[in-house]
Amino acid sequence: MIQYESLFAHAIDKLTAEGCYRVFTDLERLSRRFPYACWRGPRGSVEVIVWCSNDYLGMGQHPQVLTAMTHAIAKYGAGAGGTRNIAGTNHLHVELERELASLHRKPAALALSSGYSANEAALGTLGRLLPECVIFSDALNHASMIAGIRTSGAEKHIFRHNDVADLERLLRAVDPKRPKIIAFESVYSMDGDFAPIAAICDLATRYDAFTYLDEVHAVGLYGPRGAGLAEREGVADRVDVIQGTLAKGFGVVGGYIAGAESVVDAVRSYAPGFIFSTSLPPAIVAGALASVRHLRSNNAVREHHQERAAHLKRLLAKAQLPVLESPSHIVPLMVGDARTCKRVSDELLTSHGIYVQPINFPTVPRGTERLRITPTPFHDDAMMNALVAALKRVWSLFGLWPDRPRAFAPSVQRPRTAAGAR
Ligand SMILES: *Cc1c(COP(=O)(O)O)cnc(C)c1O
Questions:
Q1: 115-129 and 143-152 are packed helices; what angle lies between their axes, rounded to 10 degrees?
Q2: Euclidean distance between CA atoms 277 and 107, whole angstroms
Q3: Predicted confidence (pLDDT) at residue 301 exceeds the cutoff of 90
Q4: Distance of CA 89 to the CA centre of its chain
Q5: pLDDT value at position 404?
Q6: Cβ distance 15 to 338 under 8 Å?
């Protein structure tokens, strides 16, 4: 007999042995109290500060977003009622797609269930529809783009991360008559670095390639209207497809693409992941729409966000903590070992009321395990000072300072319990 269950258990044991077994932190987000949350830990409910959310601007708790969602539920009910083609296109979907097209100054946009499914559906379909297509993919592209490229069945060439010379070498080697898609991201979420968008667009022009840009970690956050890094760099018109999420900077859920009429229509008409799946609930669409509209006209939020990230990086560097240099809002703190990374994260949570999830393989390469800190406009100076102080204690506790003796002093500071919270 085949031992099905033990085969799966063996796969899990393998992860555990590598220190990569994932333990979800059981939280309750608190409406309008971002970045505070309740952690449902072994000692009951404990109030913690979340330092690793992708709700980069706290829009998931923004009053305008919450109001729009509440009103939409009262008016339209819970679910969308079907796929987009069969009873599931609500007027809000049409409005959201108009708004997203206009945000990116593209003729059309299409909303999908998530950023993941947007990448999977769009790359899968575009790569399949173009005859003899070759896709050039950045080495650090997100799993969803890799899935889309695989779905497309197109020939794939991986270029070294952000390496324009390597990309050119690969482009030059392919028959000029074959259709080519260059798929890349604007802000890479683990190192927080930026793609050379203009230089990649130059190559696309020279080699007659189509450009597909994942702006998931940039929409809402960069550019004077929050349309992303391509907008900030003034090159959005040179990018053929901009893909984004409504879940990170915009704080709700959902994904989208924006581009030329025929490109968006092709995905709408051919992508199984779009066609055969129920559309986003109206309340979700209403919240996302309110968020996009709010951020479009509020550049001060973006400036504040950047100031907060820069301030935290300065504090960490001053404390000689191993912060990775980056131009973005993402603050990676390097640990370099899966097990240690998990222990550091556990200690921060249980002894300091600070929640930063450890980032281990396969999300990042082995040996580059890290804490990925994402300060928002709601993380004030006092919170940052407390974070740095806690990190220094934990670094000492686990002997992580280079050339410093291990300190055994147990930390005494305890997080407040939810009962004693404000
Ligand atoms: C998170 C992420 C996605 C997926 O977006 P979701 O809306 O969370 O599904 C796509 N691309 C990148 C680079 C991401 O980090």
A1: 30
A2: 24
A3: yes
A4: 27
A5: 55
A6: no
- Which residues are CB-contacts of 300 (< 8 A; sequence separation ≥ 6)? none
Task: Give the mutation target among 221, 246, 248 for probing the ligand 1 site: most ligand atoms within 8 A of CB.
Answer: 248
CA atoms within 13 A on the CB side of 27: 23
User: Is 403's pLDDT higher than 90?
Assistant: no
Catalytic residues: 248
pLDDT digits (tens, 9 = 90+) for 193-232: 999 999 999 999 999 999 999 999 999 999 999 999 999 9
**Amino acid in position 109:** A
Asked if residues 320 and 388 have their Cβ atoms less than 8 Å apart, the reply is no
What is the spatial distance between Cα 389 and Cα 352, in angstroms, rounded to a whole number?
A: 10
Query: At how many degrees (to 10) do helices 282-296 and 91-103 cross?
Result: 30
Give Cα separations from 166 to 104, 160, 163, 363 (angstroms). 29, 6, 5, 23
- Asked whether 46 and 415 are in contact (CB, 8 A), the reply is yes
Quote the ligand 1 centre to 245 CA distance (angstroms): 7
User: Is residue 306 within 8 Å of residue 326, measured between CB atoms?
Assistant: no
How far apart, in whole angstroms, are the C-alpha atoms of residue 410 and residue 403?
Answer: 20
Residue 421, beta-bridge partner list: none
Exposure string over 130-169, b if 16+ CB within 10 A, otherwise e? beebbbbbbebbbebbbbbbebbebebbbbebbebebbbe
Q: Which of 216, 217, 364 to mutate to test ligand 1, by most ligand atoms within 8 A of the CB atom? A: 216
What is the distance in A from the centroid of ligand 1 to the CA of 105? Answer: 22
Largest Cα–Cα separation, the chain: 68
- Using the predicted structure, report yes or no on whether residue 57 has a pLDDT greater than 60: yes
